[in-house]
Please model this.
Amino acid sequence: MVILRKALPSDTDFIVEAIIESEKSGTDKFSYCTLFGLATEEVSEIIKEILTEDIQGQKFCLEQFIIATVNDEPAGACSSWIEGGTGSSSSYLQGQILLAFFPRENVADARDRLEMAKDLTIEREYNALQIESVYVKPNFRGLGIAGKIIVEHIQNALKGNPDLKKTQIVVAKTNDSAVKSYTKLGFEVVEERHCGNKDILNFLPADTLVVMENIKPLNDYKSNSFLQRKDF
Model:
């Protein structure tokens, strides 16, 4: 049985795993390592430190994660926030976090690579629910876990924001399985950003990102029929 719950501090290691694997988008490239010249272990420790701060409104916030468990074992995770809900954009918050937590010399050395990656910068839409770091362990895929967690995030957001109209997910265009899953869940591609410099693939898992949005009214996600799906 799949059980959904809010993330706890004891889930930190699994949340770090979820962030890393979702960022890789099915490749072996973890952008925070390749861009900043850091080992995975080093970035993992930095992310853990950021998570302890619970800085809301951006993707490195433990409190914003929902965990799915199967037989008490963490099986999947996903984060969400309402863009601009803290008064600042997620891109601004993440920029400040980068400067505060990552080694300054590594950030300075990454300047040219970060400039190249600007072509893929997507400004999240204010007052839209942002879905981030969707991850399911390989041995638990096929149980509909990703869809269940996303629907739970939408339902929770609607409880506090009944006028909420839009949910957005940013995903690598080459991540076919994710795009198909979100399409089945009622999302469609509304925006695409491409970096023409092929060198970007030395540092990022993809050179094209897409924004997907719900095409169904969010209130439709209150129906339990969504929770019965097993094809995500």
